[in-house]
Amino acid sequence: MMNRFSRKQIALGVSILVLLALGAYGLWRVWPQLTDPYYGLVTSIDVQMEDSTRVLLQQRLATAQASLASQVSSGAEVDNQLYLVIAENEKMLGDLVASRKTYEKYLALMPTSYVAWNSYAALLELMTDYPNAEAGYKKSLDLLKTEEYYRDYVEFLKLHYPDRRNDVKAVLDDAYKNLLQTPWTMTALGDWFFETGDCDQGKAHYDVAISLSPDDAAVLKQEQQDKLATCEAPR
What we know:
Strand content: under 5%
Distance between the termini: 85 Å
Helix content: over 70%
Radius of gyration: 27 Å
Mean pLDDT: 92
């Protein structure tokens, strides 16, 4: 005759089964995060274009992919620029993951390509992978300090991290250190001062920008007056 389980043993067994079920459910819920490196990111976009344009991009992509594959398989010297052609066409066709993988292959071969790092960062921003996008923008600036790359990084920070005003100021100060007085550095710094309530400094920086840009003086003067009025308005 089989021994009957005690109530305590039954309760323990039920508890173990419940814990196992909860663990399995939890694993099922997080499994995509553990196995998909792009989980939660934008992986593709629906790009609106003429059918003829789409066909042309697909043909360019196929041609570049075939050329690259042929060079790799033959052992000939590989034209690494083909990776950039492929990545850009993949992006324009909306396949962000494919474009990302291609950029990463290129950057593994050409890690000092500031152009590729900046383009890669813009792609990651489109995918909403903001931490890695920021790292890409910073990398491009480490390699080449140009107004374009400073501008891209500042706009990225202001759009996605509006509370990081001190970081924006640090980037602008670095831009001023390396580019000195340009219409953009002066207006960008002026905007920062206006936005943080230092109206006098905002106006002073715009004054310099106006003196540097006689052809755009009227437009800049109007922008200065509008932003100064907003800055001085009661809050």
